[in-house]
Fold this protein.
Amino acid sequence: MRDIKHIWIFLLFLFIGPFSYAVETPQCASSTPTSVVKTAIDGVLEALTKFPCREDKSPNCEKQEKRIHEIATRFIDFDQVSKLALGRYRRRFKPKEMEEFRDLFQQLLENTYMKKLRDYSGEKIVFENERRLNEYKVQVDTKVITSSNVIPVSYRLFKKDGQWKVYDILVEGVSLLKNYRQQFANILRSKRPEYLIRLLKKKLKTLDQ
């Protein structure tokens, strides 16, 4: 049985894109997709050390959550990620519904993977390959080495305004974005957008308890 729980922390890098806690500046034009992912990982690991969180609602946990939220808001195009997660069903959403969905989806991702982030226990990350998917998209392949397994984790990035940003993560070939798209499609085949929005609100309340 693969030791999956340890790689969940890396799913949080969906939010991070070009960020380093040591140098809080936008990535330069020469940044490569691999360097963006490396910088992201270094920044998150530094945050874990700087703000160790052992109990929910503690000052360190709040600082950690605030930092991640700032990173997410600054460096991810949640408009684009939300559209990709909805697929063809996004056309059913009115502008205000789309905006509300985007905000709730961002909160869901942050709240879900924030706690998983704290499971990190020193796993090694090996960068293997960088390959172009098309003119604007690239995949960076890595391996997470745990005490008992080697788990492939790939990051997909797209270029927007000259900067590379993570838009999807694959764990053992399974796409995080595709997973959400399938869940949302199953709901939206028979339900209206407002129903999905209510479900997200309900899920967020559960996570906050």
